[in-house]
Write a structure and sequence with these properties.
By secondary structure, the chain is α/β, with parallel strands linked by helices. It has three domains: 5-76, no CATH class; 91-342, Aspartate Aminotransferase, domain 2 (3-Layer(aba) Sandwich), CATH 3.40.640; 345-407 and 419-441, Aspartate Aminotransferase, domain 1 (Alpha-Beta Complex). The chain has 14 helices and 18 strands. The longest helix has 22 residues, at 345-366. The chain binds pyridoxal-5'-phosphate.
C-alpha cells in the first residue's frame, strides 16, 4: 500500500481522505479503529483550532446530519492540564520559534556536541527556579522519573545507603505520569492493572499526614532516599495540604537527611499564584521536576532542577535523551520562562484564582446540598460535589461543554478548572455562570 499525503489544515489529505471532510463521528471511528484505546475523550466534539489564548474552536455534529459538523467556540477551562499556562499561541513564544527556525536555523543537534542555546536555557532555568543545576528532559513524566534516579544514586553515593536498598517514599493518591516508575509509585488500580511486576523500594504514606511520614522516617529513615510528592495533588482532585504541612515535612527531611523531591509538573510555572507551588509554603526542595508549561504549550519540555549536592551525582552515560535540551526546546523554554515573568502570570493566577474561588463559594452557599467543598490555589481549582449518583462530574463536564465551556472531571464527583493564566476577568465570570447554571439544573 502506498501512503499519499498532501495539503495543510482542512486540506490535509491522507490516502484520499481530507481532514476537513471528517465529522466528529468519523474522527471517533478512526481513533477507535487505528489508535490505542487508552483515552476516552468527550464525545461529539473535535477541536479544530485556537481562536485566542483561552478559546478553542471546535466542531460538533450538525443536528440535521451527523456526518456534517458545525463550529462553535469553547472557553478552555483546562489548558491541556496546565501545559498552556502562557495561553495558546503566546505571541512572544511563537515569535521566538518562528525566528529561531527561519533566521537562526538550528532545530536539532544531539547532546554529544554543544549548541549555544543550552547555555541560555541553563541560565534562565536555574535563575527562575533558584537552583544550582538543571537537567532538561522531554515529557512531564521524565521529571519524576529522573528525580527517582537522582534520589537513589544520591542515597548510595552521598548518604551511604547499602547498594540496592534505597527507599523512595511517595504519597497516596499521587499522579506522576505513566511510565513504569510512575505507576509503581501510584496506588491507582486502573493505571496499574496487568502491568506488574512493579519497581521495588517504594513506600506510600497518606498525603498531608505529617505523623505518618514521621513514623516511616523513624522506622526506615537510614534507607530512605527521598520523599517524592506533588506540593498540591492535581490529578487527585486538587488536594491542598494544610498550611504547615510542607514546612514541617521539610524540617523532618532535614532531620533524617532525606531529600525533598517535589513534582511541580502541574503546579509550576505560575499555576498556583507563585512561580512554583513550594513558594506558597516557603520551603525549598532539594530537587524539583517541571514539565507541561515549561514548554509554553508549544513543545514538550521538562526538566529537573536541584542542588549541586544532588544533581552532580550524574555522570556521563548515566542519563540523557535525544530530544532533552535540543536547540529548539531550549529556545521555547527560555521564552516560556520569559512569558511567565514579563506577563506576570503568577500574579494573574492569583487575582483570577481569587475571583473564581469567590464564585465557587457563592455557588456552594447557594447549593449546599450539591457542592461539598471548593479547593484551590491560584488557578489550580476544583469543586467537589456530594457523592451521589446524580451529582456526576462527567455529566457536569458534558453539560458544560454544551454551554461552550471545556472542563473535565477528575473523579466521580470532582471537577477541576485550571484555565490559562492569561484568562480575563469576563471569561472567569462566564465560566462561573456556566457552572452555576449546570449545578442548579442537577
Ligand atoms: C504532577 C504530575 N507529574 C507528572 C505528570 C506527567 O506529565 P506528562 O503527562 O507530560 O508525562 C503529570 C501529568 O498530568 C502531573 O500532573
Amino acid at each position: 500500500m502506498t501512503t499519499k499525503i498532501n495539503g495543510y489544515g482542512d486540506d490535509l489529505t491522507v490516502n484520499g481522505i481530507r481532514i476537513g471532510d471528517l465529522s466528529p463521528l468519523a474522527h471517533e471511528k478512526i481513533e477507535k479503529k487505528m489508535g490505542g484505546l487508552n483515552y476516552k475523550p468527550l464525545e461529539n466534539v473535535v477541536v479544530s483550532h485556537v481562536q485566542d489564548s483561552s478559546t478553542l474552536i471546535c466542531r460538533k455534529p450538525d443536528n440535521n446530519d451527523v456526518n456534517k459538523y458545525v463550529e462553535e467556540e469553547l472557553l478552555d477551562g483546562l489548558c491541556c492540564y496546565s501545559a498552556v499556562n502562557q495561553g495558546q499561541l503566546n505571541k512572544s513564544i511563537v515569535d521566538a520559534v518562528i525566528h529561531h527556525l527561519s533566521v537562526e536555523k538550528l532545530p536539532t543537534v544531539p547532546r554529544s556536541i554543544r549548541h549555544k542555546y543550552m547555555s541560555a536555557f541553563l541560565m534562565a532555568a536555574t535563575s527562575i527556579t533558584n537552583m544550582d543545576r538543571v537537567v532538561p528532559k522531554v515529557a512531564g513524566v521524565e521529571a519524576p522519573e529522573l528525580m527517582f534516579k537522582l534520589a537513589r544514586r544520591w542515597a548510595y553515593v552521598k548518604k551511604g545507603v547499602p547498594s540496592n536498598e534505597a527507599i523512595i517514599v511517595a504519597a497516596k493518591g499521587n499522579f506522576h505520569g505513566r511510565t513504569m516508575t510512575a505507576i509503581s509509585l501510584s496506588d491507582d488500580k486502573e493505571s496499574k492493572e496487568d502491568f506488574g511486576p512493579f519497581l521495588p523500594g517504594i513506600e506510600l504514606v497518606p498525603f498531608n499526614n505529617y505523623e505518618a511520614l514521621e513514623e516511616i522516617f523513624k522506622e526506615k529513615g537510614d534507607k530512605i532516599a527521598a520523599f517524592l510528592a506533588e506540593p498540591i495533588q492535581g490529578e487527585a482532585g486538587v488536594i491542598v495540604p494544610d498550611e504547615d504541612y510542607w514546612p514541617k515535612v521539610k524540617r523532618l527531611c532535614e532531620k533524617y537527611n532525606i531529600l525533598l523531591a517535589l513534582d511541580e509538573v502541574q503546579t509550576g510555572f505560575g499555576r498556583t499564584g507563585y512561580n512554583f507551588a513550594h513558594q506558597l509554603y516557603n520551603v525549598k526542595p532539594d530537587i524539583m521536576g517541571c514539565g507541561k508549561a515549561a514548554g509554553g504549550g508549544i513543545l514538550p519540555v521538562s526538566f529537573v532542577a536541584g542542588s549541586d549536592e544532588v544533581v552532580s551525582v550524574l555522570t556521563p552515560g548515566s542519563e540523557g535523551s535525544t530530544f532533552g535540551g535540543y536547540p529548539l526546546a531550549c529556545v521555547v523554554s527560555v521564552y516560556a520562562i520569559k512569558a511567565l515573568i514579563d506577563q506576570n502570570l503568577a500574579k494573574n493566577a492569583n487575582i483570577r484564582g481569587s475571583q473564581l474561588m469567590n464564585h465557587y463559594n457563592d455557588i456552594m452557599l447557594e447549593f449546599p446540598d450539591k457542592i461539598k467543598e471548593v479547593r484551590g490555589k491560584g488557578l489550580l481549582t476544583a469543586f467537589e460535589m456530594h457523592n451521589q449518583p446524580l451529582l456526576d462530574g462527567h455529566k457536569v463536564s458534558v453539560n458544560l461543554l454544551k454551554k461552550g465551556i471545556y472542563a473535565k472531571e477528575t473523579h466521580h464527583s470532582t471537577v477541576r478548572i485550571a484555565p490559562a493564566l492569561t484568562i480575563e476577568a469576563w471569561q472567569i465570570d462566564e465560566m462561573a455562570d456556566g457552572i452555576r447554571t449546570i449545578i442548579k439544573s442537577l
